[in-house]
Amino acid sequence: MGNDVKNEIANLRKIPTDEAVDWLLLNYSVENPDYWKALQIIPHLSWRRGDQIRLAKHYLKKIPFANGKVYDIFLSIMSFKVFIKVMEEKLPIKGENIELLLYYLIPALERYAKTDDEYELLHSFVLKIREGDI
Is the pLDDT of residue 95 over 80? Predict the structure, then answer.
């Protein structure tokens, strides 16, 4: 992580989280080629649930990703159930993109599922995707 990102984290810690979200979405929108910097910043701050959801809805617009890092980032800051709910809103995606999504998403979900209910939710979610029900 570069000094610029470290400085931005320090500055964002000084303002309310809703303002920090606004700042990230303005400065590192998914349309910005440097949006990955926001993904470096997000895990280093504490977010209220509404802020977590805003961030996830924005940065998960680009699914599927070519690795599982983005899924890990959001699973690390938000509840498992809320993450699944946000992902359901981002689907469906078509064709080979489904396999790319599942290739990286399933291991991330398995790393963060802790309870029997979460494992059941994981399996139900994956089944819905594979069967085209979302």
Answer: no
